[in-house]
Amino acid sequence: MRKFLKVDPVLLGVILILLLIGIIMTYSSSAVKGYLYYEDPYHYFKADLLWVALGLAAMGVAVMIDIAFLHKWAKPILYAALFLLILVKIPGIGRTVNGATRWIGLGPMSIQPSEVAKLAMVLIMARFLTVNPYQIKSFWKGIIPSLALLGVVCALIMLQPDLGTTLVIAATVFFMLLAAGARMWHMAGLGLAGLAMVVAAIAAAPYRMRRIFAFLDPWADPSGKGYQTIQSLLALGPGGLFGLGLGQSRQKFLYLPENHTDFIFAMVGEELGFVGASLVVLLFFLFIWRGFRAAMLAPEPFLGLMAVGLTSLIGIQAMINMGVVSGVLPVTGITLPFLSYGGTSLLFTMIGAGLLLNISAAAGRSEEVF
């Protein structure tokens, strides 16, 4: 309990406010769909509350545990994540939705192995980069082993397929390598190589190419690949400065697909306007600031690199999601941390947030403002 009282109060406040906004917007955006499909406007809301409760409990545990435990168990957690990533592709075990096999069914619930893999990569990279800290200066002893592991995890996730999560993990590892002291020319080369691989991955899949064309001109295919982007913009536009009002969304009447998951930020913009959307963006920037602050104040490198990884993981995913919703980036199919409707994504986001709060407690309070 003492450790929980020492966590960064600003970081904790940001997490709880984002979570509260998510609960409110999940109900507002899913009530129509819940009534239509289940004759219960509270269907998704009740399920979301359950996941939030589980997430808060998991966050509390993550705050209280001994971080040394994670250093010791980083490898077993990675092995478990790899096992789940392989298991999800076995016929009869993996659950396919909209052409993607990303979930393992557990009765009425499901688990998304890529969410486990995201957290596992942060832990194993923090461990690897601190066990032999000077190796990061060597391309062959520091960079190549990191890329080999990243390549295995990303290849398994791409088989689902899931380019969005792959990009989030790759970008997170990039920032962790940078924070660990990798040479800038090594990182510049990695950045160019990564960009080339993304272009190749897009070119190799016709449906991804169609998404890129739809991103460049969504109105060229308004009832096909451009539909989600157009409907998302039609939600954001009428919101104006202060929004149409809570519960007054028009797009939630089955116009905008995934409006309570991937596109919940569009619902924020429509009902709460530019002010509400800007508040969400500001809260995520506050989260990133306090997360990196915890990294800088961390008493040991392992904790510092973990904080960099966890902050990057959540921050990058949030920026990509909001970029997609606002039409700045192509549709990728990833959720908005803390706000999107529950499930494995929310649960593991809360675990990551709990670990970050744990690190902030270990770092101690500082009056210095970064």
Describe the overall structure.
This protein is mainly alpha-helical and 370 residues long. Helix content is 70%, strand content 4%. The chain is built from 13 helices and 3 strands. The protein has a 3-stranded antiparallel sheet with strand order 1-2-3. Strand 2 and strand 3 form a beta hairpin. Helix 10 packs across helix 11 and helix 11 runs parallel beside helix 13.
Topology:
Elements: H1 2-5, H2 9-38, H3 43-64, H4 67-87, E1 94-97, E2 100-106, E3 109-111, H5 113-131, H6 139-158, H7 163-180, H8 184-204, H9 206-216, H10 227-239, H11 264-297, H12 301-325, H13 344-363
Antiparallel strand pairs: 1-2, 2-3
Notable characteristics:
three-stranded antiparallel beta sheet, mainly alpha, globular, disordered C terminus, 370 residues
In short:
With 370 residues, the protein is mainly α. It is built from 13 helices and three strands.
State the total count of DSSP E strands: 3
Helix content: 55-70%
Query: β content, as a range?
Result: under 5%
In spatial order, strands of the major sheet run 1-2-3
Number of H/I helices: 13
Q: Please, what is the average pLDDT?
A: 86
Distance between the termini: 27 Å
Please outline the major beta sheet. 3 strands, antiparallel
Q: What low-confidence regions span 5 or more consecutive residues with pLDDT below 50?
A: 365-370
From the alpha carbons, calculate the radius of gyration and give it in angstroms. Answer: 20 Å
Order of helices and strands: HHHHEEEHHHHHHHHH
Helix-strand makeup class: mainly alpha
